[in-house]
Recover the amino acids of this structure.
């Protein structure tokens, strides 16, 4: 199967992923009222793994040792990031966590710089900093302080940054399908074993929690992470991180709509700054793409 996807189309895919992730705050909170964090992650990634196996069962025979190593590393990053973030939600409020979780957009360019010894362009740093300021205005509450839950959330942000960077690296050496299947399987195994050891078997769930877990597993994990892996074939990890950080904007808007939270002037200003930071990056990308020939449109082959 061959698909030709431009960098602008890839950015739109990442924007859609950010929208899906923005809906997870409410769904996760509903699930956490009845299930333990590791159990939620286990259900979520088992569903996503099964979905990928069904959709791409013919691709399994093409998985090689290098694919397993790359996908497993990406999956390990994702497992640690999810575990620390979801556990942290029990020790801090959602608004504060939304701000701290968004800091991965700042970590990414510095981690890339440290690993590859290649300094990102100035617009990546400007966009990342502006995005950080916007997220802080959008979600930071008065009387901010660092608690145990906040520290765990910061730690999870570092690993989410690591996940974005490692995805960009390994997907170019493999295919989006292979990396997605293996990373889902890795997280499913690690979370299930951890849940059985530390949390035990859940006694039962309500219909609301069941629907929340299905939504988190199929839509926000299976579909969203596959699309993220696919799109990161054509964009820099720093660029992807900025677009994906719009998750905080969508999450806040959804909270206002569903949970009747107050949307203050400070939050509106935060949204504007974040969108402007995206615009700075996107205008650069559009200008570059207009000047490039059709030969520069990236062709991805899923084997």
């Amino acid at each position: 199967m061959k698909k030709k996807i431009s960098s602008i189309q890839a950015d739109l895919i990442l924007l859609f992923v950010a929208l899906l992730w923005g809906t997870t705050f409410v769904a996760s909170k509903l699930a956490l009222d009845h299930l333990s964090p590791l159990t939620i992650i286990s259900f979520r990634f088992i569903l996503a793994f099964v979905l990928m196996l069904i959709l791409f069962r013919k691709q399994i025979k093409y998985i090689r040792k290098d694919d397993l190593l790359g996908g497993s590393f990406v999956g390990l990053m994702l497992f640690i990031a999810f575990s620390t973030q979801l556990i942290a939600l029990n020790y801090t409020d959602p608004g504060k966590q939304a701000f701290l979780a968004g800091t991965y957009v700042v970590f990414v360019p510095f981690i890339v710089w440290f690993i590859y010894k290649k300094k990102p362009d100035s617009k990546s740093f400007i966009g990342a900093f502006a995005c950080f300021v916007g997220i802080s205005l959008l979600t930071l509450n008065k009387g901010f302080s660092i608690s145990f839950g906040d520290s765990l959330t910061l730690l999870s942000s570092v690993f989410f940054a690591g996940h974005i960077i490692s995805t960009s690296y390994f997907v170019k050496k493999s295919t989006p399908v292979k990396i997605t299947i293996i990373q889902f399987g890795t997280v499913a195994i690690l979370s299930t074993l951890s849940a059985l050891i530390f949390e035990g078997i859940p006694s039962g769930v309500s219909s609301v929690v069941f629907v929340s877990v299905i939504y988190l597993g199929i839509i926000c994990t299976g579909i969203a992470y596959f699309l993220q892996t696919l799109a990161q074939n054509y964009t820099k990890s720093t660029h992807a991180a900025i677009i994906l950080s719009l998750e905080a904007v969508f999450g806040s808007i959804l909270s206002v709509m569903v949970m009747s939270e107050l949307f203050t002037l400070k939050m509106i200003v935060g949204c504007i700054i974040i969108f402007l930071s995206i615009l700075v990056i996107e205008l650069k990308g559009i200008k570059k793409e207009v000047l490039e020939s059709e030969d520069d449109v990236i062709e991805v082959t899923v084997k």
The longest strand covers residues 2-5.
